[in-house]
Amino acid sequence: MIIAVFVLSALVVLMIIYLIRMRFAVQNLAKQLMDLSGENTNQLLRNSGGQKMLVPLVNSINEELKELRENTLKAEQMNREIRESLTEISHDLRTPLTAAGGYTSLLRKAELTDEEKIRYINVIEERFETTKNLVDQLFYYARMESGALTLAEEEVDVRRVLTDVLAMYYGDFEKKHFDMNVDIEDRAMPVMGDRDAFTRVFSNIVSNGLSHGEGDFGLSLKTVPTAGVCRLVFSNLASNVTEKDAERLFDRYFTKDHVRSSSNTGLGLAIAKNLTERMHGSCSAYKDGDKLVIMVEYPLI
Fold it and tell me: Whole-prediction pTM value?
């Protein structure tokens, strides 16, 4: 009986010691958490009490801390990109509006000839059209990023859409004296997707070539039977674009000065790539000598 009481007492003492150690270990973890919450650090919790029962809890909390920090870094990076983009976009919108305002002031001068007035009015209309296009790209991109943009899933003839887009830009090519070398396979190329989205993809790529290219615009549309795709290859002279620029051309907020202009927010190609991938295609860019090449592929039906 005495032995039983002694053993029981010893167990009680050990249990009390264990609980005290456990209490101190939990208090230590709580203090570490409080300290970490007020610091911008990569430090994790330490199970300094050596309690094995707390190991799963400590590991779980540390995993949550790692994920929280990764999400925080991503959010900070996104905020930086958004701030930089808003600064550039503000500049892009201000530039054509300021120019339009300047020419509007010139029109008030009584000594202007009719020819000068017509020229100034044309410039003003051009600047406001530029602003309209910039705003349109911004709103479209915002809808796309927020998930508010829904794409149709229908059979579309890529060849027909592409020829319509080229016809739409024919006057712009003539105005810039750009030669257009077009090689389009003479057959229907049915793919699944949204007709308006295809139009925007091709328009954005062609517009980019007109805005930033130096001429010698080339376009080919061919089927690749072995891969089961139709392949569009857009190319134009762009000696001021490096291979590194080409790799970043579709980044959301890539705004390197020499590959953009006051008529382009830098979002056009990002939109083209996003829409293409949403329609099960691929979009890439690379340099071929002095030429910038953009290749787009869609799976054929």
Answer: 0.66
